[in-house]
Amino acid sequence: MSSEESEVEKLSALREKIDAIDEEIGRLISARAECAQEVADVKKASLPADAEILFYRPEREAQVLRKAMERNNGPLSNEEMARLFREIMSACLALENPIKVAYLGPEGTFTQQAALKHFGHSAIAIPFSAIDEVFREVEAGAVNYGVVPVENSTEGVVNHTLDNFMGSNLKICGEVELRIHHNLMVSDVTNTNSISRIYSHSQSLAQCRKWLDAHYPKAERIAVNSNAEAAKRLKGEWNAAAIAGSMAAELYGLKIIAEKIEDQPDNSTRFLIIGKQSVPQSGVDKTSIVVAMRNEPGALHNLLEPFHRHNIDLTRVETRPSRTGAWTYVFFIDFVGHVDEPLISDVMKEVATRCADLKLLGSYPKAVL
């Protein structure tokens, strides 16, 4: 037998093995979907006919994804394994009731990318032009959840998102962390040797400042409402380029001429999932609160001292002026733990005695990946 014939036989045997594995994967996915339908039937039977049924459970999904990564022995990465399981869960959930998700649009933004990463591609994602519109849609019940940006590792907090929490009763149900890669893109009519203006969101322009200084120092930098809007503007402009994500380039038919131009290679943005439900413990959780304080000496120290004394990890502290009175401030605080844990509950009670007002924004699963 020649080496060529031997290779053909080996490939044929491997393909037969793959076909058998694919058949088993398909059978197991169908079995999982049937089991998910049975879970939905049990939930329906245990509640009144007019009651709202929570098919989506953030803490349960987080637990499933963590277990999938713990069991993973390669060669696929943990992130890839979790992504596959996310899509399976998304498809199974859509059999009963597809999740409707509002996000800060338009199409092609990083917020849409975050929504799909968290809920999977079987969710119905609907773009809105402003963060307060996303909050209103969730409050009105027109959608199940909303996705809004809250902070970037390079440029800091998104104040408009924090301000919306002050007047809203919505809760934080989850978080998404997304690595942000910026790309310079052009349309099919662009003369790449004559680029004199570059469109993007103000934060993206700031995140690529050094690269732009080095490569396009004379080009005018024009801030627009979103990176997707920047991408849409290129059609018909022969001397313009845009900075946006790869999703926008694909959506609007643009050509990427420079990849990953962000100044910080670990550039990432954190997004919040907002909804109406309180989320039970998942095992690895975070809590967000907003606290109102008078601007007086030692106020911040007195506020944070109980966290330090009980060794609770604070992951973020932000200050915003209050809307209710002059020289009054509110602190947005994120920390590790869930409000249903006895220690966290006790610390919350102690903090409440040291401030003018305390509002729980939510306890929710820490971003899985």
Structure summarized in a few sentences:
The protein has 369 residues and is an alpha/beta fold. The protein has helices at residues 3-46, 58-71, 78-96, 110-119, 131-140, 159-166, 202-207, 209-215, 227-232, 246-251, 299-309, 342-352, and strands spanning 100-104, 124-128, 145-152, 156-157, 171-179, 183-186, 197-201, 220-224, 240-244, 255-258, 268-275, 285-294, 314-321, 328-336, 357-365.
Please indicate the percent range of residues in DSSP E strands (runs of 2 or more). 25-35%
Overall geometry comes to: globular
Class from secondary-structure proportions = alpha/beta
CATH topological fold name of the domain at 279-365? Alpha-Beta Plaits
What is the percent of helical residues?
40-55%
Q: Which superfamily, in CATH terms, is the homologous superfamily of the domain at 279-365?
A: ACT domain
- Architecture per CATH nomenclature, i.e. the level-2 architecture of the domain at 279-365: 2-Layer Sandwich
Q: How far apart, in Å, are the first and last alpha carbons? A: 50 Å
Per CATH, the class of the domain at 279-365 reads Alpha Beta
Instruction: Enumerate the spans where pLDDT stays under 50 for 5 or more consecutive residues.
Output: none
Q: Say how many strands there are.
A: 15
What is the alpha-carbon Rg in Å? 24 Å
**Element order, helices and strands?**
HHHEHEHEEHEEEHHEHEHEEEHEEHE
Mean pLDDT: 90
Largest sheet: 6 strands, mixed
